[in-house]
User: Fold this.
Amino acid sequence: MQLATQRSEEIIRSVKFKERDVDLWIHRNELPRDIKKEIMSNITHILEEKKDVDAEKPLPHLPRELRKKIKNHLCKPLLRKVPLLEKNEQLLQLICDHLKPVYYNEHSYIVREGEPLDAMLFITQGIVWNFITTSNGEGIVTSKAQCIEKGNFFGQELLDWGCMKGKELVDGEFKGSLVPNLSELPISTKTAKTHTKVEGFALMANDLRAIVSRRKTKAVSYIEAAWWHFHHEKKNEVSSKSA
Assistant:
């Protein structure tokens, strides 16, 4: 009887610790009260059924619609910082729907200079170093380091690549298969390495390729509109500076 009581108390303590850690995750991500309430209700229900929960990564344990709500809240402000997306809400939402949660341990390489850039990363927690390495004849030297923190992103070259392929489809200039070849991915000109543990959402090359491959659909027309608007504004900027 005493052993059973002790075991029951241990389970209760474990549940409380898990709930506390999930609550801290909610606080770190500055989620609003209504979303917090939904998350805690679902997590408590899962724990009461004696199922395990990774409190540092609670998203996979939550219902699909709640995950989408959280992703919209966390990612839309970041996506609006991307020049190609800031004035195209339809394409922004489409990209947001395809983002995948990602987690990296500290001091982990995300992509190395010279490798194919297969993801665009939006950081919701943590710090990433983005840097170029050069050789001085005596060894490898790191130069031009950039600190990328929560609320920022890197890897926009991948989105530029996808938009260019989408425009080629619309213009009828695309050669070969209607599915963009991943062997043509842009090559990373910098190395990205985590300084701390990092949480974020990634637009994977394969998902971007799937979006672009929807020829003659709204997805491609959104891409064409974003591409036209972005480059039209760039031309106007150049013209105004030259005047």
Notes: The CA atoms of residues 40 and 210 lie 34 Å apart. The first helix runs from residue 2 to 28. The chain is about 50% helix and 20% strand.
